[in-house]
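Appendix B. One record, verbatim.
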Amino acid sequence: MRFEEFGLNEKVLEAISYMNYEKASPIQELAIPETLKGNDLLACAQTGTGKTAAFMLPILSKLSEEENHDLSTLIIVPTRELAIQINQQIQGFSYFLNINSVTVYGGREGSDWDQESKALTRGTNIIVATPGKLISHLNLGYVKFDKIKYLVLDEADRMLDIGFHDDILRILSYVPEERQTLMFSATMPRKIRDLAAKILKNPVEISTAVSKPAEGVLQAAYLTYDEQKIPLINSLIKDKPDFDSILIFSSTKRKVFDIVKSLRRAKIAAEGISSDLEQKEREEVLIGFRSKRTRVLVATDVLSRGIDIKDINLVINFDVPGSAEDYVHRVGRTARADKTGVAITLINQHDMDKFQRIEKLIEREVFKVPLPEELGAGPEWKVRPPRSGNKRRKPPTRKFNQRKPKGNNPKNQNPGPKPTNNS
């Protein structure tokens, strides 16, 4: 379906035409008409499917036709990276509109606080915020959300995973009940449905393919011992000179440092990013990666969701992700917008059961590639067989009310019948 068919404002259509938006993605095709109708929305779609355009294009189209240009739209997101990404897209979508947006997130300088407080009280139409920093402003009493008409929760499952449930409800207590609320999530666990029941009114539920990597992703895995992983990564990257945008995910900050150090020693342009970096440093690293000055970006899970970096050729999971859904989000960094990409996971002997759960979720077996000969043999693929649904483990038998006497203390032994006067 083409965007012209939705009935969007002409200036919005003009802006997205400059951004080479032509055909709507499945989530956009489902979400845009319902949002234009004014319905609350509970939407489930995986990372990289165009969710930002799915909620922003209809909101911008409606704002463009309204005379009131007060602060009318609040978008709540889990991370500063996602806030920056969404704001950048808003600026592109609203290029020909008299609509402004500002981000509110932690880790910034004092001058940014002043800019945020001014935006929250006057002078902007859309706020994109992380919960913690927004509550810091709300605590000071000057924020007025009484004219909010559109509320968006993006990556809602991620926000609950981080622990923002109570913060979200507190923020919503400042927002008028008469509003349109759009809730987007990559997964739909029970806790998301419970939250939706509290904040949405008669929502329309829409869903695209949940928890499945894009069709354009070529998935593969290597069975490796931990000491083989860094040499394997060096070999993989050297063998792919045409891949100019490579993203490596690691479970710890220490491993990020070790991987970057090894890649630089091999004359490969690499940078690491983790929570150790200040926000300004993180942004500089991302700019270098987006501009292709940095060929390899090594990251902790801070980037597994919420970052829109186009044309990533290769994603490497240095460690098997902690959950099957996280695997989908990491792999979703490549093969975006109908393009192709490669995703490789390194599996040690302790993570095979974990990876089997991933294969069950994505409903396919990922090909296990033999290690290069010079690295030696890796561990064999061994997983526990699934339990039979009809067989339950028998609980161990226990004998109650039988105590073993302690040592040889006569007090702990049965003294026999008490003597009587006739004895």
